[in-house]
């Protein structure tokens, strides 16, 4: 997949079928739109493309982070690439796009820049000045100018409208066990292993710590059954998300104890995949009490892992 990070970089591209949307989380509704785009492009002998913004439009309008993302742009790109897309237009949402007349948006971006012949978008897609362009605007202009528009109806699973907002809420409520159903993959956080207090190993539970980025959606403090992916291998693990109140005052982080594992991971990249929240983080009266609780947590997590072995 070829990724274009600015409009200026887009040059010499072939005609396209474009999926339009923000696609944060690349959930099952998004996947359906993108897969349909890829199929149509193949059938028509065109290139498939995804047009998305690298920053959330609502954040530019508010002047600060009001919408936290589920995925980093690189993560989003990597998931979209696996769906078979040829081009990704990952463009910064700036003043000029914010204030662009919807007709100019169609003419100058979609047609002149992206060479769009067909588009797929959700029923609630908005674009251009004050988000005044809608799926209907695209329909009308498509009839006039000869491009095709396919509008995806609301996509529901178990009566829930699958949306990025819905998935953000699941994560923020600790309902990580629901993410697979709606996103088609486990919710995960990746990062570089940083040095902690080096206390974990003294209580028998060494942990690999990664920092939490508070500009992203994060799960609530608590203990989770997880997988830890390192070097392409997926290890059963248990993870504490939190501030370690028993030990002191710390920033929120993610620390994972990997079962049957004793390698040094400082400076290495790991990814923690969340299966199930098992309890809230607590302040214990002593490190011994905490250690006893972690022993119990590990028994629970190991039996969970045994139960689901081979499922994911
Ligand atoms: C499964 C698990 C559960 C934990 N639960 C708590 C908790 O409820 N309260 C708390 O203060 N710390 C909790 N911790 C964090 C420990 O305090 C922490 O792992 C220990 O202090 C070692 O920290 P270090 O990696 O910075 O050395 C938990 C850690 C693990 C692995
Ligand atoms: N089973 C394990 N799970 C996670 N990390 C482990 C494990 N065994 C060894 N390690 C390593 O030990 C380090 C953690 O030890 P710990 O005493 O908790 O120190 P820190 O406070 O720096 O996390 C991790 O960075 C990792 O490299």
TrEMBL record:
Pathway: Cofactor biosynthesis; FMN biosynthesis; FMN from riboflavin (ATP route): step 1/1; Cofactor biosynthesis; FAD biosynthesis; FAD from FMN: step 1/1. It holds the Pfam family Flavokinase. GO terms for biological process: FAD biosynthetic process; FMN biosynthetic process; riboflavin biosynthetic process. Residues 182-306 form the Riboflavin kinase domain. Gene3D superfamilies: HUPs, Riboflavin kinase-like. This is Riboflavin biosynthesis protein. It catalyses: FMN + ATP + H(+) = FAD + diphosphate; riboflavin + ATP = FMN + ADP + H(+). Its EC number is 2.7.1.26, 2.7.7.2. InterPro entries: FAD_synthase, Riboflavin_kinase, Riboflavin_kinase_bac, Riboflavin_kinase_bac/euk, Riboflavin_kinase_dom_sf, Rossmann-like_a/b/a_fold. PANTHER family: RIBOFLAVIN KINASE, RIBOFLAVIN KINASE/FMN ADENYLYLTRANSFERASE. The lineage of its organism: Bacteria, Bacillati, Bacillota, Clostridia, Peptostreptococcales. Keywords: ATP-binding, FAD, Flavoprotein, FMN, Kinase, Multifunctional enzyme, Nucleotide-binding, Nucleotidyltransferase, Transferase. GO terms for molecular function: ATP binding; FMN adenylyltransferase activity; riboflavin kinase activity. Belongs to the ribF family.
């Amino acid at each position: 997949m070829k990724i274009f990070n600015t409009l200026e970089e887009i040059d010499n591209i072939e005609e396209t079928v474009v999926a339009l949307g923000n696609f944060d989380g690349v959930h099952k509704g998004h996947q359906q739109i993108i897969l349909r785009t890829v199929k149509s492009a193949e059938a028509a002998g065109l290139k498939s493309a995804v047009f998305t913004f690298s920053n959330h439009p609502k954040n530019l309008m508010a002047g600060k982070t009001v919408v936290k993302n589920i995925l980093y742009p690189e993560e989003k790109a990597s998931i979209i690439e696996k769906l078979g897309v040829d081009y990704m237009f990952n463009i910064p949402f700036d003043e000029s796009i914010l204030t662009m007349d919807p007709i100019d948006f169609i003419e100058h971006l979609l047609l002149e820049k992206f060479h769009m012949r067909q588009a797929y978008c959700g029923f609630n897609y908005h674009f251009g000045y004050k988000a005044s362009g809608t799926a209907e605007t695209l329909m009308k202009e498509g009839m006039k100018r000869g491009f095709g528009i396919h509008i995806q109806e609301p996509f529901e699973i178990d009566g829930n409208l699958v949306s990025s907002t819905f998935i953000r809420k699941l994560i923020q409520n600790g309902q990580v066990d629901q993410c697979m159903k709606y996103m088609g993959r486990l919710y995960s956080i990746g990062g570089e292993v940083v040095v902690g207090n080096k206390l974990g190993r003294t209580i028998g539970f060494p942990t690999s710590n990664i920092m939490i980025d508070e500009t992203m959606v994060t799960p609530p403090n608590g203990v989770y059954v997880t997988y830890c992916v390192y070097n392409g291998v997926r290890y059963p693990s248990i993870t504490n998300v939190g501030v370690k109140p028993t030990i002191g005052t710390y920033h929120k982080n993610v620390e994972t104890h990997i079962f049957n594992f004793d390698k040094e991971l400082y400076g290495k990249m790991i990814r923690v995949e969340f299966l199930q929240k098992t309890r809230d983080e607590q302040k214990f009266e002593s490190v011994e009490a905490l250690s006893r609780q972690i022993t119990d947590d590990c028994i629970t997590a190991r039996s969970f892992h045994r139960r689901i072995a081979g499922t994911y």
